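ARCHIVE RECORD
Type: protein–small molecule complex
Small molecule: 2'-deoxycytidine-5'-monophosphate
Source of inputs: curated submission
Record status: active
Notes field left blank by submitter.
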Amino acid sequence: MLIAIDGPAGAGKSTVARAVADALGFTYLDSGAMYRCVALAELRGTADPLAGEIEFRGGRVKLAGEDVTDEIRTPEVSARASEVAARPEVRRHLVALQREMIRQGDYVAEGRDIGTVVAPDAELKVFLTASPQERAQRRAAQTGADPAQVLAEQLERDERDCTRAHSPLQPADDALQVDTTGLSVDAVVDRIAQLVQAVR
Ligand code: DC
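STRUCTURE (tokenized, with ligand):
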């Protein structure tokens, strides 16, 4: 079974997808981390940024054998990830890897195009949203950055993610939208658990 959770930055996808995966005993796939790995490889000047093997193990992310879990979360990598994610050859490569992974069991996969491109036949598609202000607040609280600056950067990334020619961020026609503004993580996870029960 596959549960697709898509939505913009800061909507709560990672926290919620991880919690839903734990609750159901499914594997969690963070597709954004894969775009971040390609971005990091580019920033480092790696000869072939798509060649490094990306592995998820025990909540850590490895690129070509190196633990890059923390390094892929810097603002510099975030900005570059949004750029590399607009390139068709990068998307083709990573979508193929993601399809390969989710074939191998029950997954909660999180990203921007899981329900539309990676797995249009997912049993459940959730599109998480939240107000831009709340999304920026959450990200700022995680990183200790200035909320106003986070909001400005986030709006720029959202604009690029939503308007790119290839797989722009948009809900699948059959996605169920869940607005997490003002909701606790537990409340969102409960809501999704109910949706899972309904399709099981
Ligand atoms: O979810 P995130 O912030 O880690 O994603 C990093 C970047 O990758 C973000 O700009 C959107 C892009 N992305 C994408 O285009 N498609 C995905 N399935 C996941 C992320």
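CURATOR ANNOTATION: Residues 2-199 form a domain with the Rossmann fold fold (CATH 3.40.50.300).
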